[in-house]
C-alpha cells in the first residue's frame, strides 16, 4: 500500500514565510530556511515552496533562497511561483528543487505542461489548481486567486493529466486558512476521475481533517501551512495518530 504524504507548505513573500486566510490578510510565519530544516527533521514527507507574489509581480522565484533551503533538507522539494518556461525550471532544478509547481503559466500556455514533462519527466511536474465555488461550479482562478478564468476544475484537471503532469495540487480557495477541513467532495471526484496523485490543500485545522481527506477525499497527500508554522499540530504526532486510524504513513 502506498503511504500517504504530509507536506508543509512555505508561502514566500519578500523572502519570508507568510500565511493568510482565503488568500488574503497575510501574516509573517518565520524564516523559510529554518522552517524547512525543522520540517525535514521532524517527519515531513515532502516540502512545497511557493513564491506567492512571483507571478503577480512578474518576478522569477528566488533561486538563491531555493538553494539555501535545498542545502538544509533531505526530502523531496517542490518549488513554484513565476515559472513560465523550460529555462525557469532548469534554473530551479540546478538550485536544488526536485519538482516544480506551475499554475497561471499552465493555464495561459497549456503546452508548457507537455514541454516540461517531455524535458524533465512527468514526475517533476506538479500543476497547482486554485479554485472556488461560484454558483455551484468550481471555477479555476489565477494570480494567487485574484483572477477568475473560464476553466472548470474537473475539466482542467483532466486536461492537465493528459498533457503529462505527474501530480495535481488542488487548493480550495473557499477552505484556505479557515481550519474547517479540506474540500473532500471535490477531492474525491478528482481522485476517482484521474490516475495521478492528488495533493489536498486548504482547510487543515486538526488531525481529524487530515484523516478525513485521506479517507473521504481519497487524497494521496495533504498539504498545510499555518497549523504547522504556528505549532498547532506537530507532524510526528499527526503521523502517529493517522497510523493508529489505519492510514498508511511513513514513520
List keywords for this structure.
251 residues; alpha/beta; TIM Barrel; eight-stranded parallel β-barrel; 12 strands
Count the DSSP helices.
10
* Biggest β-sheet strands, sense, barrel: 8 strands, parallel, barrel
Q: How many domain regions?
A: 1
The averaged pLDDT comes out at: 90
Shape designation: globular
- Straight-line N-to-C gap: 14 Å
Radius of gyration: 16 Å
CATH H-level superfamily: Aldolase class I
| Strand portion | 25-35%
CATH fold-type name: TIM Barrel
Query: What percent of the residues sit in helical stretches (DSSP H or I)?
Result: 25-40%
Category by helix and strand content: alpha/beta
Query: What is the string of helix and strand elements?
Result: EEEHEHEHEHHEEEHEHEHEHH
Annotation, overall tally of beta strands: 12
How would you describe this structure to a colleague?
It is a single chain. The protein has an eight-stranded parallel barrel with strand order 1-4-5-6-7-10-11-12, surrounded by six helices. It has a single domain (5-244), classed as Aldolase class I (TIM Barrel), CATH 3.20.20. Helix 3 (86-94) links the parallel strand 5 and strand 6. It has helices at 32-41, 63-70, 86-94, 104-108, 111-120, 153-162, 184-193, 207-215, 226-229, 235-244; strands at residues 5-13, 16-21, 24-30, 47-51, 77-80, 99-102, 125-134, 137-142, 147-152, 167-172, 198-201, 221-224. 48% of the residues are buried. The chain is of the alpha/beta class and 251 residues long. Helices cover 34% and strands 28% of the residues.
